[in-house]
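Would you kindly consider the sequence and fold I have copied below?
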Amino acid sequence: MTTQSPPSTIKAWQYTTTKGGLEKNLQLNVSAPLPKPKTNQHLIKIIATALNPVDYKPSEIPGVVQLAITKSNTRYRLRRLRTGTSPIAGGALSEYAIVKNENAVAVPDGVDSIDAATIGVAGLTAYQSIVPRVKAGDKIFINGGSGGTGAFGIQFAKVVGCHVTTTCSTANVEFVKSLGADKVIDYKKESVLEALKASEHKFDHAVDNVGSDEQLIWRSHEFLRPGASLVVVGGDPSFKAIFQGLKRKLWPSFLGGMKGKVEGFWPQQKPEDLRQIAEWMKEGPVKAVIDQRFPFEEAPQAFEKLKTGRARGKIVVDVASEP
């Protein structure tokens, strides 16, 4: 593969306000300055990027400082194809970005560039909220199985030998079964909490990718084994949600507070986890699930689709993907 000198200016989606929604305020800057890497960073050319709720939710909270370039996980090229992520985002809605050396790993031969774009945030979130916390034979519950994180989570849990119960709408029941789910609760037809309580077994671990049902969280001890945890991944980063989190943590159980074990979650940058996910993709037991691909010029429409909450798997924006 030949290398070319990067341009002095690049195209990048940017915003200065999120009033009315981020997608309504994105502007394409056709002459943004090329990012300048430090000695411990790579300058990378982006092939494609996958969007995540974290790419817009924090920026739309009143009072939160807004970032100059929208952020997301990325798939890029610099001599070798690699994949990486940053704590909140990586400026990947632009033609070039920077990444720390330790936050990138080589993608194995045989893994498609666009598929690799889906791993960064959703893949690490699903992996770290499940794989290190379970063992073969465990029965786990995944709330929200049809989105980007849930679709990965079901597959990861099955690879390591777990029995998986998950939730989705009626339209996605067969889809999550095709990913390996053993039991599916259709939240359109029945109460998720009551279905879990009526299960023939207690659960060894649970992950909440939705985060909107406070009763499910507060009463998680009713369907979890003693000592088992509910890891809350999803939810809006609102002041109400922050208050609920503090309430769960500080209110003593003997005064009516939390009786179960609930953990907050944020993915960590662990190259070894990225390597494992990429190897599973190469070997076949894990596949990327992409709902829709948008051209770079239609990034605002991609955010519109993301915000519907109805995507099966990931939404990808092609930045400079190869045919």
Residues 146 and 312 are 5 Å apart (CA to CA).
